[in-house]
Amino acid sequence: MRFPRLLTVVVAVGLLGGVERASPVHAQMTIPPQSFEDVVAEAQAQNKPILVEISAPWCPYCQRMQETVYTNETARTYLDETFTYVRLNSDTTAGTHQYRDRTLSTKQLASVLGAKGVPTTTFLKADGTPIAHQPGYIKRPQFFKIIRYVGSGAYENQSFQEFTGERSE
Predict the structure, then answer these.
(1) What is the DSSP string of 90-159?
(2) Are 147 and 51 in contact (CB under 8 A)?
(3) Is the pTM of this model over 0.70?
(4) Could you give the angle at which helices 140-151 and 73-82 cross, rounded to 10 degrees?
């Protein structure tokens, strides 16, 4: 009886160790910590839309987006050239942000920006006006389509389906 229990513990520890190694810290895109107000000011100065990545440290899909989407060289280059971006930890209530004449905690700001869960990717105009938000994990090909749609300004005069040439079903 004792041997199977020990085997179960060894297998569980091995699997957990593998999960930890599968998500190395260096694989994440580094986003310098800045206040939300600074991000909006920077976006306005550069006339760039804002991408807000709303995540939580415990979220496996947030980590997966970090590892497979945000670390992609093409995505990073396009984001650097086209967007101002910030990452919000939706679990944090510490700190305050000014947004649309309101003082909000990070958690409240995430909610106001459309996050009902994590991950959520939110897009804002340079002045902080909401454009759209996409909840959930976004696979890299779809993410590229979305950031190009918003980054090009196409959202102002055509639907996403028209932009991508896809038919909605």
Answers:
(1) TT---SEEEETTEEEEHHHHHHHTT-SSSSEEEEE-TTS-EEEEEES---HHHHHHHHHHHHTTGGGTS-
(2) yes
(3) yes
(4) 20
d(CA 110, CA 113): 5
Instruction: Give the other-Cβ count within 10 Å of 128's Cβ.
Output: 19
pLDDT band at 92 (very low <50, low <70, confident <90, very high): confident
Tokens 């979220």 — which residue?
59
**Structure confidence by residue, pLDDT tens digits, 94-142:** 888 999 999 999 999 999 999 999 999 999 999 999 999 999 999 999 9
Give residue-wise pLDDT tens across range 21-44: 223 333 455 555 578 899 999 999
Q: Per the structure block, which two tokens stand in for 93?
A: 């209530």
